[in-house]
Specification:
This protein is an alpha/beta fold. 29% of the residues lie in helices and 20% in strands.
């Protein structure tokens, strides 16, 4: 069963997602065999996240491609505006949801990371997603980032 992790009280949803991508790459949790997929049906938000991955940190390169890119079958991080699941022999391991809704393919992944921004509209939608997962019995972990120091 997919485990769900909520990262809430973030100062910036997209910057926190960049930190999670970097952490997964450094830990070897996002690889060619087990890619991390970032999903968001909002093309403008996904494009902003794509740009941020390139400029996020001067000392890190966060390799990523769009789901329809020719290198997507080899990339450790894949950005997708459409429901996407890596095909066998790759393992659908990590999914970061930057969408406002529950991704329809989330249960195919080992772990789902939900990042909640500071805007009230985002928090309202996140509460709906939280209730959805909780009511269906998914194991959940909450990470309150409001009290942790933010670093790049």
């Amino acid at each position: 069963m997919t485990s769900v992790e909520f990262y809430f009280n973030t100062p910036s949803r997209l910057e926190t997602a960049c930190r999670l991508v970097r952490k997964a790459l450094r830990a070897g949790a996002a690889t060619e065999e087990k890619p991390l997929v970032v999903y968001c049906s909002n093309a403008a938000r996904l494009a902003e996240f794509d740009d941020l991955l390139y400029t996020f940190a001067d000392d890190d390169f966060l390799p990523h491609v769009a789901q329809d890119h020719p290198m997507a079958e080899e990339a450790p991080v894949i950005l997708s505006s459409q429901p996407y699941t890596p095909e066998h022999p790759r393992t659908p391991h990590l999914l970061i949801n930057l969408d406002d809704a529950v991704p329809e393919m989330f249960s195919r992944y080992t772990r789902l990371l939900e990042v909640v921004g500071p805007e009230e509209a985002d928090r309202t939608e996140a509460r709906k997603r939280f209730s959805f997962y909780r009511d269906r019995g998914y194991p959940m972990t909450r990470h309150d980032l409001g009290h942790a120091p933010e670093t790049r």
